[in-house]
Amino acid sequence: MPNIKLTENDLQSILSFSVELARTSGALILEGSAAIQSTSSQSDISEKNNSVDLVTEYDVRVEDLVKKSIKEKYPLFNFIGEESYSSGNRPPLTEEPTFCVDPIDGTTNFIHGFPFVCISLGLIYDRRPVLGVIYNPFLDQMYTGIRGQGSFLQRGATASRQRLPLASPPKPLPSLSQALIAVEWGSDRRKVTIDTKSQSFSRLAGNPAQGVEDGKMAHSLRSLGSAALNFALVAQGGLDIYWEIGCWPWDVCAGIVIAEEAGGLVSGSHSFFASTSETERFGVVTEELLTGRKYIVVRAIADTSTERGIDAQRRIIKEFYESVQDVDTT
Ligand code: IPD
Ligand code: CA
């Protein structure tokens, strides 16, 4: 049991604080973007594991700002952040409230000026994601969610919040062939990974009547370049499914809460899905799932007279996992 007890009211005030912090961080992200786009110098951009795994001075500055603000306001909370983790600060997960933060999700987009970039602020409590804020300062879109209290989108600082998903009731999803699916290339570019992913993408998109064996002919595939925004778009209902191998808890923690509160269903790897899908653990985001680095999320699907929404989500994930292949993470 956690020593620090959080009530629903506490979570609401943590959400207000996080929204404010996301807006302040968003201003710094925009300032950084202007600086990066106005110079041809690449000196602010560094490589992490390889030449497509990038970090800028602004990833570190935003994380420092966020970490400091959290420390001041919630000195007893733990903190996991992408850049702190990269520089060796890797605290184990405990039951206590823990902010799980990606200061800039979509760093490659940030560098290129492609406006799908966000800050992702998640809170883990009792080892489960319970609160999420995802803010894209380029589009001024704020996604928020608290476990048990719904999730929302606010477009523009003065607009009213819209409950997610935007479609009410949620639309049906008869099969993968009707789906708009987000996938990502990620930064693991080993032959085995790229070949396996490419074959999976080919099967999802390809026409079985025109030579693509087991092709599903999905409506299309998208890569926004930000795991957090992919989750947010699934919550919204603009994407039907998002699948990725290789991202980290800070990429998905906030998105998990926002998607689940919008009726989305989150699961993990092929084996995680296989071992939980017919049990009461189906759709429960455990620590194993959160840290498992393999994620699939399906948007809300309304119940019909013949099938419950959760059964439709299970059926869609089953069809999806029969079409794509798993691959090890590095
Ligand atoms: C990355 C983005 C990308 C996903 C990678 C993440 P970053 O995060 O979310 O969409 O494919 O797995 O690492 O590096 O931009 O924070
Ligand atoms: Ca990042």
From TrEMBL:
The keyword Hydrolase applies. SUPFAM superfamilies: Carbohydrate phosphatase. It catalyses: a myo-inositol phosphate + H2O = myo-inositol + phosphate. Pathway: Polyol metabolism; myo-inositol biosynthesis; myo-inositol from D-glucose 6-phosphate: step 2/2. Keywords: Hydrolase, Magnesium, Metal-binding. Its EC number is 3.1.3.25. Mg(2+) binds at E82, D102, I104, D105, D251. One of its GO terms (molecular function) is inositol monophosphate 1-phosphatase activity. Belongs to the inositol monophosphatase superfamily. This is Inositol-1-monophosphatase.
